[in-house]
Design brief:
Pfam families: PaaX_M
Number of strands: 6
Domain Transcriptional repressor PaaX-like central Cas2-like: 104-174
Number of domains: 2
Organism: Candidatus Yanofskybacteria bacterium RIFCSPLOWO2_02_FULL_47_9b
Protein name: Transcriptional repressor PaaX-like central Cas2-like domain-containing protein
Shape: elongated
CATH superfamily of the largest domain: Winged helix-like DNA-binding domain superfamily/Winged helix DNA-binding domain
Structural class: alpha+beta
InterPro entries: PaaX-like_central
CATH architecture of the largest domain: Orthogonal Bundle
Largest sheet: 4 strands, antiparallel
Number of helices: 8
Length: 186
């Protein structure tokens, strides 16, 4: 669990990745000025904002999350790599919360996935994200939640490229669900 400073830095990291994803930047100074003008970065780190933002961007380049790509008119611009998109999606889903209705409808939402060993990183990321969003693990690849979350799952499947590997089920009865009702305080 991150402390206050870790949460602030994640907010700045997310802002940097979002800006690079949304806009083509042909030079780093313009990107830094744009990021530093965003409200979420102004309030996050008051001291040494420019220094921290520049170091974060350099770390993203060194870690292979961001790269320079040659455009059609032979100009280089910043672009997210596949790993950069995964990191951005992780930041996006860290903010996601499943809405809790006033009354539970009595149905369980099961997520079942079968992700090949070759995509172990995506499988582990899927488990991590489900756990962070409040799902309970029935088995390694079977997770349960009492409230509707189909929209979130569709976004997760698209972002990780797991459309055929993940199933979403709504079931009316789940054997021996007493412990789950207790876990979710139903």
């Amino acid at each position: 669990m991150l402390g206050k400073q870790g949460n602030k830095r994640n907010g700045v990291s997310k802002a940097i990745l979002e800006r690079i994803y949304q806009t083509k930047y042909f030079d780093i100074p313009n990107l830094l000025n744009d990021i530093l003008s965003l409200p979420q970065t102004l309030s996050k780190l008051q001291t040494n904002r420019r220094y921290y933002t520049k170091n974060t961007l350099q770390r993203f380049i060194d870690d292979g999350l961001v790269e320079f790509v040659l455009s059609k008119n032979s100009r280089k611009y910043l672009c997210l790599t596949k790993d950069g998109m995964k990191r951005l999606n992780r930041y996006r889903f860290d903010d996601y919360k499943i809405d809790k209705p006033f009354l539970w409808d009595g149905k369980w939402r099961l997520i079942i996935f079968d992700i090949k060993e070759i995509r172990r990183g995506d499988r582990n990321l899927m488990r991590h994200m489900l756990g962070e969003m409040g799902f309970k693990r029935l088995q390694n690849s079977v997770w349960v939640h009492p409230y509707g979350c189909e929209e979130m799952l569709n976004l997760l499947k698209i972002n990780l490229g797991l459309n055929r590997d993940v199933l979403y089920l709504v079931v009316e009865k789940l054997e021996n669900d007493k412990w789950l009702r207790s876990e979710f305080e139903l």
